Amino acid sequence: MNDAVRPRWKTLWTVLALAGMFLLGAIGPRVGWAAAADSTAPPHTAASLRATLLHGGLRTVAGRSGGVPAVAPGRPRHVALAFGLSAAVPGLGQAYNRQWVKAAVGLAVEAALWTGYVVWREQGLAQRDDYWAFAHAHWSPARYARWLNDYSDYLRQEHNRIIDTPPVSIPGGIDFSNPDGWTSAERAAVRQLFEQIRALEADNGVIFTATGATFSHQLPFFGEQQYYELIGKYFQYAPGWDDYPVWRTEDGTFTAAIDPEAVDASGAKIHVSDRFYRYADDHARANDLLRRASRLSAVFVVNHVLAAFDAAISARLHNNRLASSLSSSLTVGHDAFGAPQTTASLRLSF
């Protein structure tokens, strides 16, 4: 390059370097770039200005000869804060780490889990209320108690069973379809009714004639969760449904329906009524929805934990990268013939 051209290149590099420094000064604070402001730094030369322009995102590190630029990757991140944010709401810790795609995915998964949980739980609770109302309208503890008294007589007369427990005393005037309207006295009477039912069920003389086994379950108290479970699950409670066949005629004769466990040739219970099975199906559907919601709540917890650890690990990796430094230098000189010569070096330290 001749002497006439060389001043033009120097002027061009100087103008470009000044323009680059102006742009860096304008946009640097917005993206986290910082220019060194140490009074001990060496004065800017054409080489250092050129290096500043070429390395845009680099800053001068004080104490290094020749104005050595180094990478400024950002500020350290708080690992505990990242963990806590995503533990509270998955995606927040990822947003704190500026991982926008992960943040969007985390928030979307969280929203989907919450939506599924709320929908399934509300549907399950609504169907639970429906089968409770169905049970109140069509299954009667008093009717079941009458069957239990008659069944005990049947066992004494037809199977010579010795049953020491006295018959159940059935109170009158209680509307089992409207438990919310019971008085305190009626509630006490219902409690006593259930205690007598449970005592007779527990008597060793009361058995299933087909197997000779005693009753495996006792009727839970009215309104308990197991109360609604058992009346549509075990066939011994089938006579309590209002569409169960007549098991004893007015003259005291026992019909085949006295035994709810009786089966036909195919093994089907021949006396169990449609409302027993309908109730069992409604109960199963409601419980299935509630179980789905419960499973989602478990997934919800797992999602929070995984998101929290992911955010914490990402923050830690970011900090580890900050612990390493990248330095470079660019030297502009002249060769033996006076032509410009540029020498670059790069050093990575941990």
Summarize the topology.
Blueprint: H1 5-31, H2 46-54, E1 58-60, E2 69-71, H3 79-88, H4 92-96, H5 100-138, H6 141-159, H7 184-201, H8 225-230, H9 274-323, E3 325-334, E4 340-349
Antiparallel strand pairs: 1-2, 3-4
Helix pairs in contact: 1-2, 3-9, 5-9, 6-7
Account of the 3D structure:
The chain has 9 helices and 4 strands, in the order H-H-E-E-H-H-H-H-H-H-H-E-E. A hairpin with a 5-residue loop joins strand 3 and strand 4. The protein is rod-shaped, with a radius of gyration of 42 Å. Helix 1 (5-31) packs across helix 2, helix 3 runs antiparallel to helix 9 (274-323) and helix 5 packs antiparallel against helix 9 (274-323). Helices cover 52% and strands 7% of the residues. A two-stranded antiparallel sheet has the order 1-2. Strands 3-4 form a two-stranded antiparallel ribbon. The chain has helices at residues 5-31, 46-54, 79-88, 92-96, 100-138, 141-159, 184-201, 225-230, 274-323; strands at residues 58-60, 69-71, 325-334, 340-349.
